[in-house]
Amino acid sequence: MDGVPRVPERRSAGESAALRFGVLGPVRAWRGEEPLATGSPQQRALLAALLLREGRTATASELIDALWGGEPPPRALAAVRTYASRLRKVLSPGVLVSESGGYALRLPDARSLDLAAAQELAAEAEKAKNSGDLCHARHLLNEALSLWDGEPLANIPGPYADTQRTRLEEWRLQLLETRLDMDLEQGCHAEAVSELTALTAAHPLRERLRELLMLALYRSGRQAEALAVYADTRRLLADELGVDPRPGLKDLQQRILQADPGLAEPSAPAPEPAAAPVRPAQLPATVPDFTGRTAFVEELGKVLASAEGRVMAVSALAGIGGVGKTTLAVHVAHQARGAFPDGQLYVDLQGAGPRAAEPETVLGSFLRALGTADSAIPDSLEERAALYRSVLDGRRVLVLLDNAKDAAQVRPLLPGTEGCAALVTSRVRMVDLAGAHLVDLDVMSPDEALSLFTKIVGGERVTSEREAALDVVAACGFLPLAIRIAASRLAARRTWTVSVLAAKLADERRRLDELQAGDLAVKATFELGYGQLEPAQARAFRLLGLADGPDISLAAAAAVLDLPVDETEDLLESLVDTSLLESAAPGRYRYHDLVRLYARACAERDEHPPSERDAAMSRLLDFYLATAAGVYAIERPGDRLVDHLQPTQYPGLTFEDRHQAQDWLYAEAACLLACMRQFGTSGTLLRAIDLLWAAVDLSESGANAREYEAVAITLRDAARSSQDRRTEGRASVVLAVAHHLSGRFAEADDAAREALQLAESLTDPLARCWAANIRGAMAFYQSRYADAEQHMEQALADFRDCEDLAGEASVLCNLSRIHLATGRPRSAVVLAQQGIETYEALGHALKGANGRYALGMALTRNELYGEANDQLHAALKVFRDSRQRLWEGMTLLRLAEVDLAAQRPAQASTNAEAALTVLRGIGGEWRRGNVLTVLGRALSGIGQSGRAQVCWQEALTTYEALGSPEAETVRALLAPAAAA
Q1: Which 3 state secondary structure label does DSSP give 29?
Q2: What are the residues facing 426 on neighbouring strands?
Q3: Alpha helices in 703-804 (DSSP H)
Q4: Are 148 and 25 in contact (CB under 8 A)?
Q5: Cβ neighbours of 968 (radius 10 Å)
Q6: How many CB atoms lie within 10 A of CB 406?
Q7: Which of 531, 681, 522 shows the shortest CA–CA distance to 592?
Q8: d(CA 245, CA 235)
């Protein structure tokens, strides 16, 4: 709640002075936005009794009974009349009327009462649910539930109010159960667990909530916890009521024990959209000059039209690169959109490139496009594929899988349900794709090729030189991509005739060779377009193809070409016009995978002097390093890392604020990581490592932690091979950071030890500072507190020698954690406060949040729970604003610890569940074990001891596998249950 009373919605501005009433909380009245004085508790009881009669007349005796029950005061009737008179003066004329010896309220609009508004919303939700629109139904129920503002009829005396209060609370719980049931039907089980845990703590005997919690846990992959809920419920019912669980709960337990497939997936389609539309429309734009292919269009259209009566319609188009597979598929898909009203999905599977798209990544993208929340998307390929099929069940969606590598890549991405269809394009024939309608796409016929050429160039120019035009399309091998490239060049040059173009193509004797499969033919078509480029265009085409990554930004391209941004944009747009480059999004460009290979071959062959290739890539690396260093400096003011990075010759971007800087970093993540991997050679290796160091937020945020760690390993190995000890030392520092953030503490300690040894033997003071700090942190995590303090003291001295105040503050906060672990809670508070003061003096909000994180823990140990809660919430706000998911999750864990210490186990379980959701897939198993341990304590505190045991057992298994000393603590928690 935001502290503002929730009141019935006003219908229009014209009703600004209308009366509105609330009973789903304190009994209140408003005229417009102005609250009205409704008098004493007894007077408000009278108002509530009349409001709840929904316009019906209440006799004086009924009102007396409602207010006082069987023991009214001597002047009860006079009191009722006095209350009514006072209310009549407050309310508008004609609202409170006297009739038939009693009173009634005449409200001009039933929705002016919050209860009536909630009833109407609930009725609309029921209709939406019955019609199958669960998304809308959930929205309506959430709107209805938001009208509650605490306990209904709060502080209203009388037996009538007591009865109505119980009724309204019961109805609220029923609405909640209905909405939670729909949450689970739509796959939102991960989010539901936290809410259901709190609700079952508040209403322990309500079996329907327990049933929903079991199902939510089971679908979240927590089967043992789900069964533990049943055991807790059975024990509680026996102890409190002397009864067994109802049959529905018993049946669910048996189905979970049997791993009933019907429980594993939601039965309803279409998860509620979070930020994505419910009906995705991802098809690329069709080309306006689509030509020919009439037979194929009809054939594919018929297959797609049959989707409604088949399990699934799949068509697979195969052909050489440039033959027009994607163009045909997109055109057919657009024509068939009407048959697939629930949306169209599209993905480029990059099957012809060196790294084809992973099916699990594609499924994650598809699920988000279909409205599934990130927290509801499972990790494994099998689980994602199952959820994907469940989401599509009952919907009519077309899926276009472009540029597939093979059938194995495609199979998990097929809908598999009646009414859906898939179009697949690939360079290979998918004979092993069961049930697929295979289409082999050949080059165009001469007539089709000439028609396409004419549409692009213009009929007037072609008609007068028909023979020359036929020569051109023949030289293009009737390949659509080659024809489009040649025609686009001619269309852009009004002084050329078709004969001039034909003569130029005649000089290029490279034709399609029937004895060579696809690649040579594609290369020949690209040769035709490349040969027509102006020198500046050709240079741009060659050099931009050298950079790895899915695409390239305009600013990065300008760095590669060493040109102003405006001039670069003109060149790139001209290449887009020739179809040799694609515009991925405003300001971003990409190559077709085969065109990129051809561009690189051209660079090898034609770029003179050859050193210009290395210079272009060096400028790109400089641009990325300078910009990433700028982002780091904005995020971490006063941090001296940026002063110790390799100098750059080419400048980077500048940003107005840290949010803009963050947007750049995360948007460029894939390109940055590809660049680092590409430049892991002797000449550029140290700058690549520094770029990885400066882009540490990619790991610390959790967004790209796995990819970051993999690149760090690659660069460390390359550094070892280079036998450059300074480079190897820095690479080891960065790898230690990556291992630390991924929860691999032993590996992090090994890397930090190597880095420290190398840094001490060389002149690289900042690497020595970081390595000592990391070694101290790893020793702390491994409960080697004396070693941890020794390393931290060394790091503190080294940071001071470097005049790195941010580094000093980091060590002070780490020392606070060590003091806390070694029984010095008061000095822990002092150290954390010193760290925060330093960060605040530097204007370092992000790391200041890390200081507040440490201070919150120290305050908790000192039993200052209110202050701890404030510090941790302040940190949480910064971490969320900075997209630091790892630290967001860890702060939620610390908040749960505060709640436990303050005897708030229900709130602790909510925060711990939220931490578990946020940290899924990031932070490592040790951190997950910590969350499970705290969650178990919270569950035990709310009487769910069976679930607590499951959490502790999972935590113990994790700790034992890691060899962590925390295992002993968890064994102690489990021991009482074992003894019992």
Answers
A1: strand
A2: 318, 404
A3: 705-722, 725-741, 745-761, 765-781, 785-801
A4: yes
A5: 10
A6: 16
A7: 522
A8: 9
Please answer whether residues 561 and 543 qualify as being in contact, where contact means their C-beta atoms are separated by less than 8 angstroms: yes
- Give the pLDDT confidence of 296-317 residue by residue, as tens digits: 887 887 777 765 555 466 778 7
Spatial distance between the Cα atoms of 437 and 299, rounded to a whole number of angstroms: 10
Sign of dihedral through CA atoms 696, 961, 937, 949? positive
Whole-model pTM: value is 0.68
Give the three-class secondary structure for 886: helix
Alpha-helix runs per DSSP H in 376-534: 381-392, 407-410, 446-457, 459-463, 466-475, 480-491, 498-507, 518-531
% of the chain residues with pLDDT over 90: 39
H helix and E strand count, the chain? 46, 14
Please check whether residue 715 is in contact with residue 680, taking contact to mean a CB–CB distance below 8 angstroms: yes
Q: Given phi > 0 = left and psi -120 to 50 = alpha, else beta, which region is 39?
A: left
Q: Measured between alpha carbons, how far is 569 from 576 in angstroms, rounded to an integer? A: 10
What single letter denotes the amino acid at residue 837? E
Tokens representing 18? 């209308």
- Rounded Cα–Cα distance for residues 251 and 228 (Å): 15
- Write the single-letter amino acid at 240: E
136-140, 257-261, 777-781: the lowest-pLDDT one: 257-261
83-97 per-residue burial string, b: 16 or more CB within 10 A, e: under 16:
bbebbbebbeeebbe
Gap between the Cα atoms of 516 and 519, Å rounded: 8
Q: Is 83 helix (H, G, I), strand (E, B) or coil?
A: helix
Residue located via tokens 């279409």: 270
Spatial distance between the Cα atoms of 653 and 690, rounded to a whole number of angstroms: 17
What token pair was written down for 796?
């503190």
Q: Which two tokens stand for residue 296?
A: 């194929």
Sorted by sequence, the CB contacts under 8 Å of residue 547 that are 6+ apart come out as 556, 560, 617, 620, 671, 674, 675, 678
The sign one gets for the Cα dihedral 651, 657, 659, 660 is negative
One-letter amino acid for residue 962 of the chain:
L
Q: Say if residue 106 is exposed, middle or buried (CB neighbours under 10 Å; 0-12, 13-18, 19+).
A: exposed
Cα 859 to Cα 623: distance, rounded to the nearest angstrom: 44
- DSSP structure string for 443-489: PPPHHHHHHHHHHHH-HHHHHTTHHHHHHHHHHTTT-HHHHHHHHHH
pLDDT top residue among 15 and 388 = 388
Alpha-carbon span 315 to 43, nearest angstrom: 73
Mean pLDDT for the stretch of residues 171-182: 92
* Amino acid 321: pLDDT: 64
